[in-house]
TrEMBL record:
GO molecular function, one term: semaphorin receptor binding
InterPro entries xref list: Semap_dom, Semap_dom_sf, Semaphorin, WD40/YVTN_repeat-like_dom_sf
Segments traversing the membrane: 499-521
Region entry Disordered, spans: 451-489, 619-638
Gene for this chain: LOC113797910
Protein's recorded name: Semaphorin-1A-like isoform X2
Gene3D superfamilies, sorted: ligand-binding face of the semaphorins, domain 2 (3.30.1680.10), YVTN repeat-like/Quinoprotein amine dehydrogenase (2.130.10.10)
């Protein structure tokens, strides 16, 4: 029947979605059962086998489609499930028999993708991502959420008897802070609650994997959230929208008891409290990350973070403890990373002041392109393992590989599991360091130690400088922020995109410089050799007839009428010397009649190409009333020739 409904053969198999331990000898198993969800309870028998106790439909406990996300938690003898109901998966819900969230109400759940769930302090928490209803007037966006319900919630009176009376949700903020923060909005996975010492304070954290949207740049980040901060947000104001066209504004309703709080008898709650929580389940404040910034960020077109597991509070030779993060990717690899500053700093509002990411190694577990769907840490005193899950395969790998050969190499790993044994002269993870710490060399913060013979990284062998430890920390932290390294001696590899960008930049730069140099060279040559320049480049090279006539008559005040100039080579008649020098410039020459100079370079300008020039100037007679009369415009009988 499943295939007749248009489903593939793979989708029509039975996928186990719930495997809960009800007691020491009883388990509950629920599966998709070829798009007909079914649950069975089993008991561990005396013959080391499981006996079926009961069977019931799995509606609202297990999704129909195996591709739909779901999560569950068994807490205080009750099963809490976040999944989707119906064949089409159009009815998301958080369910504990007989209670559920509001049906088809986007203010409660709006197309969610559930990630994980866990109990804490009398509540059950759910992590998921959904379409942000508060952003719907500005477009469509996906936000990460944390929601909770009270374990003592028994529903309300009358029409609220099958509804949660304590359902609240808030936004998780994993972003790089700044004037314009860069958000990683989509949560993909999370760890269990980790208890540890951070900056001298005992805290409880949850590490989560966040990514950018699928149609954005390929970005992934790891953020940690403190449970105290989550609870504080749920005690804050609500985000309220009066009508569909109004803005979302904070509001603290003057209602007692406060909506969303646990009650000893939820069925006796007043109706105004239940109506408020039915329409306003979203909190106004967001949950900020513990260190106010991501622990690790990676941008890549090939892979994204998909899963996470934490081996908490690994103690080093110095007595400090670190959370070791194992991060699965969509490309079949697992990253091993830590925050080297976590023992020194706690909750901070200053970006980057308390986060020093160190990627210890990146291990290939599955074939390229196979996503790591889940990671589990199997702690063991001598043989600790990491269990990696893919869609069709399960593998185990060691938590540490202390294979460095020298003291400096071992310390540069910055691996909390590995330290150098001075007595045995090898890099080891022996637990004996807890009883004899002085024989083990380890420095997670800086990655070097003066007791190592090979000294500080980048310095000659046998040299070390304790006075420059702070400076070395800054240098190594810059290297640690590059999450592409797989060890202390990794060689940077440049991608094809980087190479193509470098080639294009070089070509464009060469063209620009060539154009500028050619332009400057051409202009300089034109100025150095005017002979190759166009005569029309200089506006003063033109001979204005009126100006030229004025220059000629300036030296012959008594001469009027027509003057004709003929330029030639050599001396003209009457012992006239040439007016122009070898460069065609009018010089200081005198006429044969003994008059003064007839021209000057400043008055005449520059004659072009030393070509003969004939000018006829009509000068009106002095005292003539009509300078344009035909009699006055007749040429004079005497013509004065000037040879140029």
């Amino acid at each position: 029947m499943c295939k007749y409904k248009g489903k593939s053969e793979d989708a029509c198999q039975n996928y186990i979605k719930v495997l809960a331990k009800l007691s020491d000898d009883r388990i509950l198993v629920c599966g998709t059962n070829a798009f007909k969800p079914k649950c069975r309870s089993y008991q561990y028998g005396p013959m080391h086998n499981f006996l079926k106790l009961s069977e019931k439909p799995g509606e609202a406990i297990c999704p129909y489609d195996p591709s739909y996300s779901s999560t569950y938690t068994f807490y205080e003898k009750n099963l809490y499930v976040a999944t989707v109901a119906g064949f089409t998966g159009a009815d998301p819900l958080i369910y504990r028999e007989p209670l559920r969230t509001e049906q088809f109400n986007p203010k409660h759940l709006n197309a969610p993708n559930f990630v994980s769930s866990f109990p804490y302090n009398g509540h059950v928490y759910f992590l998921f991502r959904e379409t942000a209803v508060e952003y719907i007037n500005c477009g469509k966006a996906i936000y990460s959420r944390v929601a909770r319900v009270c374990a003592r919630d028994n529903g309300g009176p009358h029409k609220f008897r099958a509804r949660w009376t304590t359902f609240l949700k808030a936004r998780l903020n994993c972003s790089i802070p700044g004037d314009f923060p860069f958000y990683f909005n989509e949560i993909q996975a999370s760890s269990e609650i980790v208890k540890g010492l951070y900056g001298g304070q005992n805290e409880q954290l949850i590490y989560s994997v966040f990514t950018t949207p699928g149609n954005s740049i390929g970005g992934s980040a790891i953020c940690a959230f403190r449970m105290a901060d989550i609870d504080a947000v749920f005690r804050g104001p609500f985000k309220v929208q009066k009508d569909i066209d109004s803005n979302w504004l904070p509001e603290s309703p003057p209602i007692s008891p406060r909506p969303g709080e646990c009650s000893n008898d939820s069925k006796s709650l007043p109706e105004n409290t239940l109506k408020f929580i039915q329409e306003h389940s979203l909190m106004d404040h967001t949950v900020q990350s513990f260190w106010n910034s991501p622990i690790l960020v990676r941008t890549s077109f090939q892979s994204r973070f998909t899963s996470i597991a934490v081996d908490p509070q690994i103690e080093t030779a110095s007595g400090k403890t670190y959370d070791v993060l194992f991060i699965g990717t969509s490309n079949g690899t697992v990253l091993k990373a830590i925050n080297a500053a976590s023992p020194l700093t706690g909750h901070s509002n200053d970006y980057g002041s308390s986060v020093v990411p160190v990627v210890i190694e990146e291990i290939t577990v599955f074939p390229r392109g196979t996503p790591v769907t889940q990671l589990l840490v199997h702690p063991s005193y001598y043989n600790a393992k990491l269990v990696a899950f893919a869609s069709h395969e399960i593998k185990t790998i060691r938590l540490y590989r202390c294979q460095a050969k020298t003291c400096g190499e071992c310390v540069r790993l910055q691996d909390p599991y590995c330290s150098f044994d001075l007595q045995q002269q090898k890099c080891t993870s022996s637990r004996s360091r807890y009883w004899n710490r002085e024989n083990f060399v380890q420095n997670i913060e800086m990655g070097w130690d003066p007791r190592c013979p090979d000294g500080r990284p980048g310095m000659p062998s046998g040299t070390s400088d304790e006075n420059n430890m702070d400076e070395n920390r800054m240098d190594t932290s810059d290297e640690q922020e590059s999450d592409m390294t797989t060890g202390p001696s990794a060689v940077p590899v440049y991608s094809s995109e980087t190479f193509a960008l470098a080639v294009v930049t070089s070509v464009v730069t060469s063209l620009v410089f060539g154009f500028i140099i050619g332009y400057i060279f051409s202009r300089r040559c034109r100025k150095d050799d005017p002979g190759i320049c166009s005569p029309y480049d200089d506006p003063h090279s033109y001979l204005d007839p009126h100006n030229f006539a004025g220059a000629l008559t300036a030296g012959h005040h008594g001469t009027t009428g027509l003057t004709r100039l003929t330029a030639g080579h050599g001396h003209g008649p009457g012992g006239m010397a040439p007016l122009y020098g070898t460069h065609g410039t009018l010089g200081h020459h005198y006429s044969s009649a003994g008059h003064g100079p007839i021209g000057h370079p400043a008055d005449m300008g520059t004659l072009v190409n030393s070509k003969p020039i004939n000018l006829v100037l009509n000068v009106p007679k002095g005292g003539s009333k009509n300078a344009n009369s035909s009699a006055d415009n007749k040429p004079m009988q005497k013509v004065k020739k000037i040879y140029l």
